[in-house]
């Protein structure tokens, strides 16, 4: 799982600051808080996701704007307020959950040490939120085996945990330009959401067809098809649907090469739908569109997958981030090149499934 680039640096800062982050419980944490026993991270996070799903709450489709205390949580990706880098993978779900649970208006986060570096302090009694960083290490015995046999040494994946605080939990943070913190991104004006979403679709290079009465991605011929916009009660739902199907398309062997061979009702099919749901949510949040759930009828299948494998949600969230990053990178490259793209429409073909 890819958490934050520059992750080692931030992880070290978080681990070192966790000793100073023990507090008496102000603020609810969605991930494990500082001071709690160190359980198996995969079990711990998976159990929380399962609890949310069983309660009918979808962690990647939070009720933005309906948070305790009446504050409005911004629809955006969580990011490090000092470096400006966005969090990814499972950390997005953990941090979104904490923002909603506590009614914080910002998606900006700092480690305890970073808050001090910014000339601020974490408010007394505040409780941090634990996020994770994936890494690998190679034991000395494995290195020796590799030297003796001439084979490649096998690295062992593991998770590091470190503690972060929302900037709403800090005092003394500068708000003026030049104070060192990256400000919350300005919400994209509603009139700009449609053209930006259109340009993301076009920059993907995916064969994109409009017509019929069903939305789907066809892996064999490699194309996306969605009904025309007039078939949607709300125009923005057209783009939510497009981003969901494009997340599937990014898994094609010519792109990120995910397993798209699962038949309907299979575990592999459920895993891929989980990736597409989260990938669409991450894309929507990046564009300022409130994420929603496209396939809530799959909750039972997702629960089966998560109960069976405590790493499934980590893999799915990682794959979703990679898909969203792939599409956004293509869009940024097209924008930088000054290309003006338009969605490729090929008529009114009938949906087949």
Question: How many beta strands in the DSSP annotation?
Answer: 9
**In total, how many domains does the architecture comprise?**
2
Strand content: 5-15%
Which secondary-structure class do the elements indicate? alpha/beta
The number of distinct helices, counting runs of at least 4 residues, comes to: 10
Poorly predicted sequence stretches spanning 5 or more consecutive residues: 1-25, 32-38, 66-70, 339-353
Query: Spatial order of the strands in the main sheet?
Result: 1-2-5-4
> How helix-rich are the residues, as a percent range?
25-40%
Instruction: List SSEs in N-to-C order.
Output: HHEHEHEEHEEHEEEHHHH
Rg over CA atoms: 21 Å
Tell me briefly what this model is.
The chain is an alpha/beta fold and 353 residues long. It contains ten helices and nine strands.
Description:
It is a single chain. The protein has 353 residues and is an alpha/beta fold. The longest helix is centred in the C-terminal third of the chain and has 25 residues, at 312-336. Helices cover 40% and strands 11% of the residues. Strand 8 and strand 9 (223-226) form a beta hairpin. The protein has 10 helices and 9 strands. Helix 6 crosses helix 10 (312-336), helix 7 crosses helix 8 and helix 8 packs across helix 10 (312-336). It has 2 domains: 7-171, no CATH class; 190-336, no CATH class. Residues 1-25, 32-38, 66-70 and 339-353 have low confidence and may be disordered. 40% of the residues are buried. The strands form 3 sheets. A 4-stranded mixed sheet has the order 1-2-5-4.
């Amino acid at each position: 799982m890819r958490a934050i680039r520059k992750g080692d640096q931030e992880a070290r800062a978080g681990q070192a600051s966790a000793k100073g982050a023990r507090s008496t419980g102000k603020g609810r944490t969605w991930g494990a808080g500082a001071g709690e026993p160190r359980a198996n991270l995969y079990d711990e996070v998976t159990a929380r996701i399962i609890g949310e799903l069983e309660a009918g709450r979808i962690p990647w489709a939070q009720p933005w704007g309906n948070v305790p205390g009446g504050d409005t949580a911004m629809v955006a990706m969580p990011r490090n307020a000092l470096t400006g880098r966005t969090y990814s993978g499972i950390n997005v779900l953990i941090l979104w959950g904490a923002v909603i649970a506590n009614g914080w208006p910002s998606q900006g986060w700092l480690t305890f040490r970073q808050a001090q570096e910014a000339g601020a302090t974490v408010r007394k009694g505040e409780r941090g939120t634990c996020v994770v960083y994936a890494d690998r290490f190679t034991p000395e015995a494995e290195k020796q085996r590799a030297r003796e046999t001439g084979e490649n040494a096998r690295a062992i994946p593991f998770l590091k945990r470190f503690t972060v605080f929302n900037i709403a939990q800090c005092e003394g943070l500068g708000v003026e330009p030049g104070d060192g913190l990256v400000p919350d991104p300005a919400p994209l004006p509603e009139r700009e959401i449609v053209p930006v979403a259109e340009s993301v679709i076009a920059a993907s290079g995916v064969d994109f067809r409009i017509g019929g009465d069903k939305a789907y991605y066809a892996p064999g011929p490699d194309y996306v098809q969605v009904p025309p916009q007039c078939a949607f009660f709300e125009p923005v739902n057209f783009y939510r649907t497009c981003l969901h199907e494009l997340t599937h398309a990014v898994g094609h062997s010519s792109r990120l090469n995910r397993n798209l061979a699962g038949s309907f009702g299979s575990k592999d099919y459920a895993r891929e739908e989980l990736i597409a749901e989260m990938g669409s949510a991450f894309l929507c949040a990046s564009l300022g569109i409130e994420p929603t759930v496209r396939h809530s009828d799959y909750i039972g299948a997702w629960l089966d997958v998560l109960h069976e494998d405590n790493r499934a949600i980590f893999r799915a969230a990682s794959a979703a981030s990679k898909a969203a990053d792939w599409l956004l990178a293509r869009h940024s490259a097209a924008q930088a090149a000054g290309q003006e793209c338009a969605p490729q429409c090929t008529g009114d073909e009938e949906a087949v499934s």
